Amino acid sequence: MNRSATVFLAVFFACSLYAHAEVHAGERARAVLLPVSGPMTPGEKAQLAGEMTRLLGKKYKVIHGKKVVAFLEKTLREENQKDDCDLEACYSKVARNFNAEIVAALVVSKKQGSDYHAVFNITNVLEGKNIYGKSGDCPACSIGKLLELCGTLAPPAE
């Protein structure tokens, strides 16, 4: 092979590797959104999950819904059979099942009357550490106010 062809192939190969690396560098990490937890109707939980999915989707490729719920329930049943039940192990299994390393959870709790408190956490299960967390109060709360609160709880898009 002549020198020009060799140089061309080397440059072509190097550019191909660079382009491949750029595609992977631009990919968003996969995050599993766990079912919303709290004293709300299934419809309200679905609305909150939809809003958190939309907000998280700016930063992550979000996996959520019926398949996540079914796998989480199965995993929790299995884990509860053990003497040393470990919630972190459950979350890790869920993340691995969906080829993700991030698990996100929104938990809403009732304080008094119509006052609620919401906590949103994102955990990197591979590293075993919480990478983001924020909470907020919702006085005289309604589903509309909770949806607005989601916007303040979600991490900023980067």
Task: Write the SSE topology.
Layout: H1 3-26, E1 30-33, H2 42-56, E2 61-63, H3 66-80, H4 87-97, E3 102-110, E4 116-124, E5 129-138, H5 143-153
Parallel strand pairs: 1-2, 1-3
Antiparallel strand pairs: 3-4, 4-5
Key terms for this structure?
158 residues; alpha/beta; Rossmann fold; 5-stranded mixed sheet; 5 strands; 22% strand
Strand content: 15-25%
The CATH class turns out to be Alpha Beta
* Uncertain segments: 1-24
What is CATH's topology name? Rossmann fold
The order of strands across the largest sheet is: 2-1-3-4-5
- Give the helix proportion (percent range): 40-55%
How many structurally independent domains?
1
Name of the CATH superfamily: ABC-type transport auxiliary lipoprotein component
What is Rg?
Answer: 21 Å
Explain what you see.
The chain is an alpha/beta fold. The protein has a single domain, classed as 3-Layer(aba) Sandwich (Rossmann fold), CATH 3.40.50. It is built from five helices and five strands, in the order H-E-H-E-H-H-E-E-E-H. A hairpin with a 4-residue loop joins strand 4 and strand 5. The chain starts with a helix and ends in a 5-residue tail after the last helix.
